């Protein structure tokens, strides 16, 4: 496919106009483009610089300009973990029209992406690329079709991506392509918009992000401004108004959802310019919200069960139930408004939300920053948050406090501040437990599962305050070993991290004292924490060096046999980690045989004479 040579990306201010004889409508430079003309004004250069700068931050390594645009999209629009973005991209010659692929194991869904970055500011996106991209979904209609794709000699990145995600087996198990996401920095022509309209009910869904949408997102990422419009809202009740510090005012009212979905800037997401996230996608919470909206019986109860939304404005005018706002931005409740907008066909006058409107004294008010920061720090309630009041977490937290006081703390809630010298977050704790005590480092990166399906297996009765403290020391040791990793392994530390932790505990299991340390770390801690940390750090660094050698040797052997080796797969499965485990434990035994003391032999506190 054609790629932009210099990575030029036009902005949304380059707009199509009809040829006209009216001089007032021909200001600027007009370039003929068939039946329509393209007017370029000074604002285009600003948009061009904005998008060029945004995409340039992703132009790293051997990534081409189109892949850089797609990487920016995955991070800023799809909100994919930055550590996982490089693993999702396969853009390049031989990509079979698939520039990126993401597998959602929780939903058993596959999303395909294609990026089309054009150099010319006047060139529009037609329907040809869209039709070709739609055809790519056929590769995933069956396990045999996926295998056919693999046999067709795709590029190495795509082949590794398919193998790494075990797509053949997952499609055989029922996974299907549900979304086709096409990303382009150009405007759509009539054929493209016609095709999109005709495929409105198509399965899989075709989601096209053209220049207008891309520029709007780039603007949102660059700075957070209020929408400038004067907006009128018809509330169900007269607002409660109160004065805030700094000459600001607060108004609270019940407002029908049908009013809120009329707010400007929902389609291009500019209404939510102060939000940290744009769209959380098809999450469990959003699906439950959609089900509630579809059930009219639930509408009357909605204000009682929903947290409401928070709106910023530069001016409030109130006349009975009519509220007029000078400028508007929703800083809390983005997901709710987007969900209501999607399900607007089911809305009734009885479905209302509590709306808090904060009038700022001026656009530069520090109050704006305070509200925006705190609202955006209140992350959506997820399964981990719901576990924060679970008896297991509360018991562990109290046990840690009772045992270690201010020396070590255990965080179970987002935003919780502890005064302890060392602090372990329960999300990291769950990952470390999965990697070490459950011996499944490849599963440690699945954060959602850790507090859902795997929760009771992870936080079983054997996990206590002493083991949590040991895991904190182990995590410190593993992080100290990061700089010993080479090249790609260091940049992919998120996936390597828990494998190192697992391998260090494998080394502990090779000696009686090491096994006892894992079983009853309280016999060493906290008095011997410095000595334990020193040992763990030395072994973590040894493991990192061994991983470097193992990956290098395996890659070289694969090349000699004309095969491909994907280092990322080593840490994503039991089969990938097993050979590495055998090699490292074998080497450790040999070293200890020659030089006793390599394995853990530190005497516990109660054995010291």
User: What is the 3D form?
Assistant: globular
The largest sheet is: 7 strands, mixed
Q: What number is the mean pLDDT?
A: 83
How many DSSP H or I helices? Answer: 25
Uncertain spans, ≥5 residues at pLDDT below 50? 1-40
Secondary structure: helix percent: 40-55%
- In total, how many beta strands? 16
Rg for CA atoms: 28 Å
Number of domains: 3
Strand coverage percent: 15-25%
**Classification by helices and strands:** alpha/beta
Straight-line distance between termini: 74 Å
Describe the protein.
There is one protein chain. The protein is α/β, with parallel strands linked by helices and 609 residues long. It has three domains: 15-217, no CATH class; 224-380, no CATH class; 384-607, no CATH class. Strands 8, 9, 10, 11, 12, 13 and 14 form a seven-stranded mixed sheet that branches. A four-stranded mixed sheet has the order 4-5-6-7. Strands 1-3-2 form a three-stranded antiparallel sheet. Helix 11 packs across helix 13 (334-342) and helix 22 (493-508) packs across helix 25. It is globular, with a radius of gyration of 28 Å. Residues 1-40 have low confidence and may be disordered.
